[in-house]
Amino acid sequence: MSNLSQALGEYEENEERDNLITKFIESNKEQFKKQINSLMSDVFDKHYYWLEENAPLSLSEESVSRAKKLLAAVLEGDNEAAGALFETGHDSRRVNEIFNNAGKPWSEIIRGKMHQTDAITLRQKLCELYPDLLKNERILDLESQVESVTRQLAEANKDLSRMRGYEA
Length: 168
What we know:
By secondary structure, the chain is mainly alpha-helical. It has two domains: 60 residues, no CATH class; 86 residues. The protein has six helices and two strands; from the N terminus they run ααααββαα. Strands 1-2 form a two-stranded antiparallel sheet. Strand 1 and strand 2 form a beta hairpin. Helix 3 packs across helix 4 and helix 5 crosses helix 6. The chain is elongated. The relative contact order is 0.06.
């Protein structure tokens, strides 16, 4: 056999040797399976125990650490971090894009009270701290609220007209 054949992992066939190896493996197959299953079971049990015991605490600690880093970056004036926190750069029309509310504005008046997303509320409260970053986002929020009120008013007027017996 050449050195190249050995380097490529090729080996010389030896029927007598190969038959002995095959016979040994076949005769001990069940024992090998049991040993491998036992070993794998031990490994998985140890990892499962670690995950069950340590993952919740690790996730909690990592979440708190990342939240602190994000807030520190925002308070230090990092516009990219602030944009991520304040959810800026999304649909400028401020309308829902999925499920039953698709096409409707984020803000709505329900029973006389303005309801809006947490991101809008956060931007509203922190606009003074980040006027350059949030000014345009806040303007878009307010435009969306006006659009919502205008739509609701138009729908209410249509309903009133229908109830009175004539179409608007």
